[in-house]
């Protein structure tokens, strides 16, 4: 985007904001005229001057505003407000500093406490989806399902997930204080930030030669890590495979489709992407499968986005059964658009459908076998295998 284009966008946004402000001034002036003896001090001529000067908003601000003017902050604030007015919780403006952090996280490294979080719009809260294994958050005792009520004393609502995330991050070795609601109990954790290495793919061999792979996000290289773990399990003569996508909130779509490619036949449809004009594009597997054992996928209400792409594709095409509870239902895709100055916009650009053209967004995926965890285990991170009813059902089916 060239300087002239950027200025035009900024100018358009500010005209919209000034138009709204002008409406307020005209209304306020009318009230003031009606209550002219009420003691209100208001310059009637100001609204008229703004109306005549609406296309020269900078002149108006320069002429009347008594404080210091930071053009960069004005520009950023105008764009943020314009995008937030869409009402889409997944579309947002990303500053250059936030972009740098985002790229670090997708590469698998960042400085923070090591938690995945998600916004719960129904309760207007932000909760811990899962502490990253080996992270400061896990060591401090944070648990999946914890509600974060404040960070360093500041409270946040569900639509402020990005702001909360940015404030939890910070310099390595510094501390952050989280106020937590866990059930009826109020807790406080002071956690030291550290460099967190994301290594989301874990594997092991269960009884009856059943392989088990779990990962909690789709970051860069997740598909490669998945392939490596599977090959290690295959060398141990596994006869079937459980893929645990519980509490996996998604991530990079390409990583999900790569994993599907390891399992599906060449040219099989993985998903359909539908844009705002209804144009539909099929994303297909590109290679012959390398995994040909029976598969069961574990899901829960926090299985979302890219996880649903993988689960939906394998279920529709008969390559896996799903055990657990219904998934979250985020069937829309966001893209990061980089601007010339280093800023970015994360914007919802497409909806996806499963190979059978099933809609996922705000619906979710129903499991083949609906199995609940006992209520006292729902928020546990490491559930003992013998108490994990969902895992045990999967093992029973594969035996």
What is this entry, summarized?
By secondary structure, this protein is α+β, with helices and mostly antiparallel strands.
What does this protein look like?
The chain is of the alpha+beta class. The chain folds into three domains: 3-85, no CATH class; 109-197, PDZ domain (Pdz3 Domain); 202-398, 2-enoyl-CoA Hydratase, Chain A, domain 1 (Alpha-Beta Complex), CATH 3.90.226. Helices cover 33% and strands 25% of the residues. It has eleven helices and 19 strands. The strands form five sheets. It has a six-stranded mixed sheet, sandwiched between helices. Strands 1, 13, 14, 17 and 18 form a five-stranded antiparallel sheet that branches. Helix 1 (3-34) runs antiparallel to helix 2 (44-52), helix 1 (3-34) packs across helix 4 (71-84) and helix 8 packs parallel to helix 9. The relative contact order is 0.10. The model is unreliable at 1-55 (pLDDT under 50).
Multimeric status of the protein: single chain
Distance between the termini: 58 Å
Structural class: alpha+beta
Percent of residues in beta strands? Answer: 25-35%
Strand/helix succession: HHHHEHEEEHEEHEEEEEHEHEEEHEEEEH
- In helices, the fraction of residues equals 25-40%
């Amino acid at each position: 985007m060239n300087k002239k284009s950027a200025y035009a966008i900024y100018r358009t946004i500010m005209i919209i904001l000034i138009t709204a402000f002008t409406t307020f001034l005209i209304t306020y002036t009318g009230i003031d005229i009606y209550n002219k003896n009420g003691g209100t001090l208001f310059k009637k001529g100001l609204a008229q001057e703004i109306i005549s000067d609406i296309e020269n908003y900078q002149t108006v601000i320069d002429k009347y505003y008594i404080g210091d003017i930071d053009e960069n902050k004005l520009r950023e604030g105008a764009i943020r407000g314009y995008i937030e007015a869409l009402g889409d919780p997944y579309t947002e403006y990303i500053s250059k500093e936030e972009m740098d952090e985002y790229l670090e996280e997708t590469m698998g490294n960042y400085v923070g406490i090591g938690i995945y979080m998600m916004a719960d719009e129904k309760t207007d809260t932000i909760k811990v989806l899962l502490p990253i294994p080996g992270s400061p958050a896990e060591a401090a005792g944070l648990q999946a399902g914890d509600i974060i009520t404040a960070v360093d004393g500041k409270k946040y609502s569900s639509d402020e997930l990005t702001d909360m995330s940015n404030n939890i991050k910070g310099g390595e070795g510094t501390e952050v204080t989280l106020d937590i609601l866990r059930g009826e109990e109020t807790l406080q954790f002071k956690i030291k930030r550290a460099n967190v290495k994301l290594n989301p793919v874990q594997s092991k061999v269960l009884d009856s030669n059943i392989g088990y792979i779990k990962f909690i996000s789709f970051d860069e290289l997740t598909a490669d890590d998945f392939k490596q773990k599977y090959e290690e399990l295959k060398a141990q003569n596994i006869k079937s495979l459980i893929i645990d996508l519980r509490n996996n909130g998604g991530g990079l779509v390409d990583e999900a489709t790569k994993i599907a490619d390891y399992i599906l036949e060449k040219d099989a449809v993985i998903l359909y992407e539908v844009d705002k004009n209804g144009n539909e594009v099929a994303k297909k597997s590109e290679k012959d499968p390398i995994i040909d054992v029976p598969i069961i996928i574990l899901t829960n209400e926090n299985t979302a986005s890219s996880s649903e792409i993988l689960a939906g594709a394998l279920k529709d095409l008969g390559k896996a059964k799903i055990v657990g509870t219904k998934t979250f239902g985020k069937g829309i895709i966001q893209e990061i658009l980089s601007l010339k100055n280093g800023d970015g916009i994360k914007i919802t650009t497409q909806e996806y459908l499963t190979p059978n053209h099933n809609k996922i967004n705000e619906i979710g995926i129903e499991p083949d076998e609906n199995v609940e965890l006992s209520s006292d285990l729902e928020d546990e991170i490491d559930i003992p295998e013998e108490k994990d009813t969902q895992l045990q059902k999967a093992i029973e089916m594969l035996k």
